Amino acid sequence: MSNDPSDHGHGDGEPKGSPSFKMHGPDIVVTAIVLVICVLLYARTYWFDTVPSSLAQNVQPAMFPRLVLICIAAIALMLPFEYYRKLKRGIDLDSDRREFPPRLVWVTGAALIVFVAALPLLGALPALLIITIAMPLMWGERRWKILVPYVIIFPISVLFLFAEVLRVTFPRGITGGIFY
Q1: How far is CA 136 from CA 49, 104, 111, 128, 151, in A?
Q2: Other CB atoms closer than 10 Å to residue 23's CB: what's the count?
Q3: Cβ count near 132 (within 10 Å)
Q4: How far apart are CA 119 and CA 130, in angstroms?
Q5: Do residues 125 and 159 make contact, with C-beta atoms less than 8 angstroms apart?
Q6: How does DSSP assign the chain, residue by residue?
Q7: Which of 9, 60, 92, 148 has its CA 20 to 30 A from that of 27?
Q8: 18, part of any domain
Q9: What is the pTM assigned to this prediction?
C-alpha cells in the first residue's frame, strides 16, 4: 500500500474510484431476508386458483398479493442505502439499534399474530374492533376523544375500502351475518 496522497480519491481514506454510494452491512442482511420472504410468497401465488375472465373483473386472485410483494421488495432494496444518507445529515441510526427493543414491541408483534390468527374465527369486523381497541391502549393512549372515533371509523373504513371498493371477501367467522 502506497503512502502517496494521489492514491486516495477523497482525502478521507477512501480509495480513488470507490463508489459514491455505500451500503450498510446489517441492512443488507435484513434486505436479503425480506427479499427471500418476498420471493417465497410470490412463488406461492402461482398455486392460487384462477378465475374465469368473465368473473375476474380484470383482477386475478394472485394479482394483488404480487403487487404488494413487489412494492415491499422495492422498498427493501432501498434499505441498505438509507443508513449513509441519514449519516450525512447527522443522524446515526445505529445508535438506537444498539439497545434491545422494549418488551412492548414484542407484545405488539404477538398481538398482531393473535389478531391474524383470530380473523377467520371471529370474523373481520369483530377482529378489527378488538385490535383497534387493544393496540392504542397497550401503547398508553388514554384520550377517549381520539380513541372512540378511531375505534368506530377505522374498522368500518377498512372494511368498506376492501369489501366494497376492492371487492375483497373477508371471513365471516363465528359472528356469521350479525355484522354483515
Answers
A1: 37, 12, 12, 13, 10
A2: 14
A3: 19
A4: 10
A5: yes
A6: ----GGGBSSSSSPBTT--S----HHHHHHHHHHHHHHHHHHHHGGGSPP--HHHHTT--TTHHHHHHHHHHHHHHHHHHHHHHHHHHTT--HHHHHTSPPPHHHHHHHHHHHHHHHHHHHH-HHHHHHHHHHHHHHHTT---HHHHHHHHHHHHHHHHIIIIIIS-PPPP-GGGTTTT-
A7: 9
A8: no
A9: 0.55
Residues 112 and 89 placed together within one structural domain of the fold: no
Identity of the residue numbered 142: R
Q: Name the grid cell of 59.
A: 383482477
Asked if residue 51 is part of any domain, the answer here is: yes
- Domain boundary pick from 33, 64, 97: 97
pLDDT of residue 12: 46
> Which grid cell is 137?
391502549
Q: Per residue of the chain (180 residues), what is the pLDDT tens digit? A: 444 444 444 444 444 444 555 777 788 999 999 999 999 999 998 887 776 665 556 667 778 788 889 999 999 999 888 878 777 888 777 776 777 888 999 999 999 999 988 888 888 888 889 999 999 999 999 999 999 999 999 998 988 887 777 777 777 788 766 655
Q: Are 155 and 131 in contact (CB under 8 A)?
A: no
